[in-house]
Amino acid sequence: MSTIKIEDVAFVRFRAPDLDAMASFLVDFGLKIVEQTDERLVARGAGPTPALHITELGEAGFASLGLRAASLADLETLAAAEEVEIEAFNAPGGGKVVTLIDPDGHRIEVVAGQTLAGNLALPPAQAWNHAAAKDRVRATKRIPANAATVVRLGHCVLNVSDFRASEQWYKSRFGLITSDEIEVAPGFSIGAFLRCDRGAVPTDHHSLFLVQSPKGPGFNHAAFEVADLDDLMIGHERLKAAGRAQEWGVGRHLLGSQVFDYWRDPWGHTLEHWTDGDLFTAADGSNVASLQDLMNVQWGPSAPPTMA
Ligand SMILES: [Fe+2]
Fold first, then answer.
1. Taking the CA atoms of the chain, what radius of gyration do you get in angstroms?
2. Among candidates 271, 275, 234, which has minimal Cα distance to 256?
3. pLDDT at residue 307, as a whole number
4. Neighbours of 38 (CB within 10 A)
5. How far is the centre of ligand 1, averaged over its atoms, from the C-alpha of 36 (Å)?
6. Under a CB-based contact definition with an 8 Å cutoff, are residues 271 and 264 in contact?
7. 141 CA from centroid of ligand 1 (Å)
8. In this structure, which residues have their CB less than 5 angstroms from ion ligand 1?
9. Helix H or strand E segment including 100
10. Are 208 and 7 in contact (CB under 8 A)?
């Protein structure tokens, strides 16, 4: 039994010495700036979460990962179990937050009670003409050139120093379920894709991926869901035209099945666009996969050394 079951990841928080430069990158990436002061930059997506990406003025680095609890009652349960205070969540949408520190010192902010923002418009879902099924007839397809439409934060990957210790820490608090565990030798696993336990409600193949990395603990990447494949590709062209640093893609992962496209912010933090990922329920069980499966693509370029 875990203390609570989180519903999803909520936001990522960074520090950067130049908020204008971060804002410019985020607009090219497809996020919407909703607040910019001398001290802080907040961006949202088209989905209802009021803040997906927060940057505080400071030395560049990853500051925290936000998780969303199902209710304020769950937040109280978590705070009591951890013997910490519930605080006001100081960001658009308000709500409450409990801040914890994981075994590697990563700051984890669990939020609840946020006032959701209204949905912003998404590009219309347009049918595809497959050779085997012509779903769009007597109609054109036109994709306006634009940044991608980031909808929500889908997952975060954290490098950890001891996978089993971190797995235990996160699962015992937040009720996560292993989708695919990465076994590199019999009986030795270096990481796992973890999904939220939402019972019969389908949830992303992974909301959190913990991986024991030779680089040592730290932020690996954060991944944002975009509207669809055309939107991802239009967003790719925009980032390329703006001279942004691409890291890996476009391709389709094996584990999780997402179409992916990885870019770097001006300080080297990896942010991913993805679309068309797998969804599972709590009944769908867990699998063991190999390191080859982890790095494998179904199509697209192989992983650069920086992703290893
Ligand atoms: Fe990812």
1. 19
2. 275
3. 85
4. 6
5. 27
6. yes
7. 29
8. 223, 272
9. strand 96-101
10. no
CB 15 within 8 A of CB 56: yes
- Report how far ligand 1's centroid is from the alpha carbon of 272 (Å): 6
Query: Across-strand partners of 6?
Result: 69
Contacts of 107 (CB under 8 A, 6+ apart): 13, 63, 64, 65, 99, 100, 101
Contacts for 240-243: CB closer than 8 Å, 24+ residues apart: 242/28
Residues in CB range of 262: below 8 A, 6 or more apart = 221, 246, 247, 248, 249, 270, 271, 272, 273, 307
pLDDT tens sequence across 249-308? 999 999 999 999 999 999 999 999 999 999 999 999 999 999 999 999 999 999 999 886
Rounded to the nearest angstrom, the distance between the alpha carbon of 123 and the centre of ligand 1 is 23
pLDDT for the residue numbered 306: 87
User: Are 304 and 248 in contact, with CB atoms under 8 Å apart?
Assistant: yes
Ligand 1 mean position to 52 CA, how many Å? 16
Separation of alpha carbons 57 and 149, rounded Å: 26
Q: CB-based burial of residue 243 (10 Å sphere; 0-12 exposed, 13-18 middle, 19+ buried)?
A: exposed
The 10s digit of each residue's pLDDT in 119-143 is: 999 999 999 999 999 999 999 999 9
Q: Is the dihedral of CA 279, 282, 284, 289 positive or negative?
A: positive
> In the structure encoding, which two tokens stand for residue 145, read together?
């050139």
How remote is the CA of residue 57 from the centroid of ligand 1, in Å?
A: 26
Q: Which residues contact 149 (CB under 8 A, 6 or more apart)?
A: 30, 45, 46, 122, 123, 226, 227, 231, 235
Query: 159 C-alpha to center of ligand 1: Å?
Result: 13
Expressed in angstroms and rounded, the spacing between residue 220 Cα and the centre of ligand 1 is 9
Q: What is the pTM of this model?
A: 0.97
Task: Tell me the CA–centroid distance for residue 250 and ligand 1, in Å.
Answer: 12
